[in-house]
Amino acid sequence: MVNAKSLGTRNIPLKLAEIITKMVNKEWEDGTFMEKVSLITKDLLRFWDPNGSFGDLRNFNFHEGQWQAILNTIYMHEILKVKSVHDMYMVARPELLQEMDLLDLKKDKYSHPKYCIKMATGTGKTWVLSAILIWQYLNAKHEEESNGRFSKNFLLVAPGIIVYERLLDAYLGKRKEDGNREFDTSDFKKFEGLFLPPAYKEEIFGFIQSSVAQKDEIGKKITGEGLIAITNWHLLASEEVDEDTETALDSPEKTIKKLLPITPGTSAGHSLEELDSNYFKGKELDYLANLSDLVVFNDEAHHLGEWKTSEEVLDKKWQKALDDISEKKKGKFIQVDFSATPYTVTGSGQKRTKHFFPHVIINFELHTAIKLGLVKIVAIDRRKEIAALPLNPLEFKAEREGKTITDLSEGQRVMLRAGITKLRILEEGFTNLDKTKLDKTKYPKMLVICEDTFVVPHVFNFLKREGYSEEEIMEIHSNKKGEIGEEEWGKVKQKLFDMDKHDKPKIIVSVLMLREGFDVNNICIIVPLRSSSSPILLEQTIGRGLRLMWREPEYEDSKKENREKLLIKKEEPNNYMDILSIIEHPAFIEFYDRELGDVMAQVKELPKKDRVVGDIISIGLKSNYKDYDLFWPLIIHDKEEELAPTELSMEGLEKFPISLEELKPLISQRGDVFKSEELTVKTKFGEYNVTADIFTAKSYNSFIQKIVNAVSEVRVKVSKKTVKPFPLMQINSSLIARLIDEYIQHKLFGEDFEPLKDNNWRVLLLTESRIIQHIVKNVAKTIYDLQNSLKINEAKIFKRYFSEITEMKIRETYPIDVAKTIYLKIAFPSNKGGFEKAFIEFIDADSKVKSFVKINEHIHDFSNIIYIRDDGLLAHYYPDFMVKIGNKIYLVETKAERDLNNQNVKSKRLATIDWTDKINELKPEDRMNCNWSYVLLGEKTFYGMSKKDASTEEILEYAKLTKAKVKGTLGDYLGIKEY
DSSP labels for 862-887? Predict the structure, then answer.
């Protein structure tokens, strides 16, 4: 019998991913994508879309790689409804199968929906996982008949204990000192503005908080309507990580303990906990196997398969356990694998070939992430002392006597010293930038990766001889497999995850067990030490240091210039912010060249101590800052304020134009044929989304509640971390519900209407007649008018002084020395900032100007005004300047002439004039004894008048806006104030 030799998958799955991405993007752009998904999915995608209306209201969004992964998954599963990996090729590009092993694709492990998401390390795979879980759960919960495509049961599998803990942190929150977890620190709570549309927030929170089962709770814990089981793969393989590194003869008592279920004669040997633990071994798999449906998420899924030869894949226990779990479920088992490196390898040297998992549907490469600034730039250190190291293997291997490692080689010592030198320079530069220590997260760290556990103590001793104390060095101990055990993990986990916040440890020494889940941001230097000539996987070497350290917006401009210098111009960098330096032996540079190509930077010089952070400098307050300080008044309504029952009335509510008699015949007698669609209701102050779940209301009370939510849960961002409902007042939802009910029963149709008689209420769901839209619009306007009718003396004022920001980071290349502001210097934009610079210098030189502030929306996030964008949604507007002259304050927006007719610019005008009118009604002491005005200043006006020796006050008075000017009416000339 002749066996045909398999060629493996090679890079064919990456071609599949590219084809899928093109298909998805075409349908997304032409709108056909949204026509083919459920109403729940539409809701989610509209809310999540980073380029959509909601994206502008958030400080954080899915980046393009995450968004593409979400879209590709939904497209393959919900739109194309693929049933197997073979199906994916058939619907995307059947001819690719000619190059694949068809028999391999017919294996059981590929016979169900299975998707692999390939995303570079550090680019946020966990966010994608969470989004897919929400999409699956909400669709499963709200579908009227289960079609097997969605599930409320989830299994999250981690490759080791670090990733396992990270997943628990994401879903349950971080552990407090008492051992309990704090849900407010979970990803879902911290980023609810990204993940959770307001209409679904409570049910998602309820599901997560009631349904998560940790690995020792699977099959035992009673959960809510579904399951989120989180475990590491050892549970699936019926084994846990060994703590020991000894042989059976070295430690016979441990060997006996493994062989016997209970060790006789020990104090805890017969405890109930240990009896339970042994009894339940294997029960978790049975429990998972007996679930009717399940979605499995495998984090770091490259551990699932291992190519031993080019003829076959030898599945690991992890994969075999998943096969057992899926066996009874048939098409109701879905597997989603996440990995930066979803491939196995055959051959060596020139014949070394990567074989990618056949089910890759998205390929977000490391070089793309680097170019976009989503991860650090990777720079290979090419200093002379490193480049001069001989290529002799003795220089990169540890010294040995026989098989025993006795010491580090001279080459390894050179590499470590090179890393230490750079670390000390970075430490001095980074800490000097933040002399006030307000930002306690900028402590650079060095990671030494050892390939052998026996090298670690030699590195530790060497570092001590170089002057580092024991508390400045952190050793991570592991077993022979490079895995960390529970006992060791208990000692190091808190220190490991908190190291970004602390000066010590400075250096972490570990074997490869830190290759996954080590999610810290401050690794700036990596020194890979080898004990053999075999190449360590590039991703395993650099992946630990890719996460960004300098994420704040004030550094983005400088980092962007750095990327251009390093990656395009191939020049030395301006600074070392978010550059990962690899101190690599010259013998292995080719591996980096091959993998990273044009995004691998090279650095041949040590950074100068005063240029570590480039031209970023810290600017503090002047000693006499109080002479120039200004405040922004916030009008805060009392927390206990509610609408009085007499204030909410039906007086202004309009009758629906079509009679009840005409509408009733349109209702199906069965009461179940209703066209469901998304409605958008625009009111005077924004946009209400009437989501599809209103149309699936199962009762009249449910219908009323959903309408209440639509008109009272419009949420907007009011600061970096805070989202509040708009209108910004406490509204008693029961009063709104009563108003809606009375409106429907007594006024909506111009006659009494009994919604509960013969299911009459279902007439309200007739969307072609836009009844819901009519109800929402009328009730929303009533609420808005009530809020605007509040007298100003009923409000409480909170003053936010600009001096609260005691320090600003600006670029030294773009500062202006100023006299009349609270800081010694202020910055102007590096890109086309000539107009702003000229305006700053002009007003600073004007003797009548008392003080001014340049408003930075990232720092002065309190100084905003809510306005309505041209698409109808609420947004936040930040004026450019606040200028005080005598008893006048001007809010100034500087705009190039081409921007003056932009629709959003016009929208800001009316909102800001409304706001300044409210401010001018405050008590004098609450508005700095000044009258406030709004100015929209074009550059032609400024330059033309300033050249004619006009003063700042004359220019601003000339450009001051009134509603009459905005509307183009004659009100100003006739002495009539526009409202």
Answer: TS-EEEE-TTS-EEEE--SEEEEETT
Q: Which CATH number fits domain 12-240+255-364: 3.80.10, 2.40.50, 3.40.50, 3.40.1350?
A: 3.40.50
The residue length of the chain stands at 979
- Exposed/middle/buried for residue 151 (C-beta within 10 Å: 0-12, 13-18, 19+): buried
Return the pLDDT at 223: 81
Cβ within 8 Å of residue 145, ≥6 positions away: none
- Owner of token pair 């340049």: 854
Alpha-helix residue ranges (DSSP H) falling in 713-752: 733-746
DSSP symbol at 726? E
Tell me the DSSP string of 306-341. EESSSS-EEE-HHHHHHHHHHTTTGGGEEEEEEES-
Alpha carbon of residue 973 to chain centroid: 52
**Residue 523 above 60 pLDDT?**
yes
Residue 599 has pLDDT above 80, yes or no: no
Q: How far apart are CA 8 and CA 313, in angstroms?
A: 9
Domain ranges of the chain: 12-240+255-364, 378-612, 648-796, 805-974
Q: How confident is the model at residue 387 (pLDDT cuts 50, 70, 90)?
A: low
594 burial type by CB count under 10 A (0-12 exposed, 13-18 middle, 19+ buried): exposed
| Nearest to 186, CA basis, from 165, 168, 162, 204 | 168
232 within 8 A of 160, measured Cβ to Cβ: yes
For 782-821, write each residue's pLDDT tens digit: 775 665 555 555 567 889 999 998 888 777 666 788 999 9
Cβ(550)–Cβ(376) under 8 Å? Answer: no
Tell me the sheet residues that pair with 579.
Answer: 377
What band does 274 get if pLDDT is binned at 50, 70 and 90? Answer: very low
User: For the chain, how long is the longest CA-to-CA vector?
Assistant: 103
Residue 716: φ, ψ to 5°: -135, 155
> Distance between CA atoms of 612 and 426, rounded to whole angstroms?
6
Give me the DSSP letters along 764-783.
GG-GGGTHHHHHHHHHHHHH
Predicted TM-score of the model (pTM): 0.69
Give φ, ψ of 162 to 5 degrees.
-70, -45
Q: Using an 8 Å Cβ cutoff, are 296 and 318 in contact?
A: no
Supply 6's token pair. Answer: 């398999």
Structure-model confidence comparison of residues 166 and 92, the more confident one: 92
In angstroms, the CA 100 to CA 6 distance is: 9
439 pLDDT higher than 60: no
Check for a shared fold between 12-240+255-364 and 378-612.
yes
Closest CA to 939 of 892, 907, 876: 892
The C-alpha atoms of residue 514 and residue 157 are separated, in whole angstroms, by 17
Which one has a higher pLDDT value, 28 or 491?
28
Specify burial of residue 940 (Cβ count, 10 A radius: 0-12, 13-18, 19+): exposed
Question: Under a CB-based contact definition with an 8 Å cutoff, are residues 738 and 746 in contact?
Answer: no
Give the C-alpha separation, 631 to 969, whole Å.
33
Nearest CA among 324, 240, 536, 343 for reference residue 526? 536
Residues 6+ apart with CB under 8 A from 115: 72, 73, 76, 77, 335, 336, 337, 359, 361
C-beta atoms surrounding 204 within 10 Å: 20
Look-up of token digits 């040590």: 606
CATH superfamily of 378-612: P-loop containing nucleotide triphosphate hydrolases (3.40.50.300)
Q: What is the sign, positive or negative, of the torsion defined by CA atoms of 335, 339, 343, 345?
A: negative
**Cα atoms in the 13 Å half-sphere on the side-chain side of 220:** 12
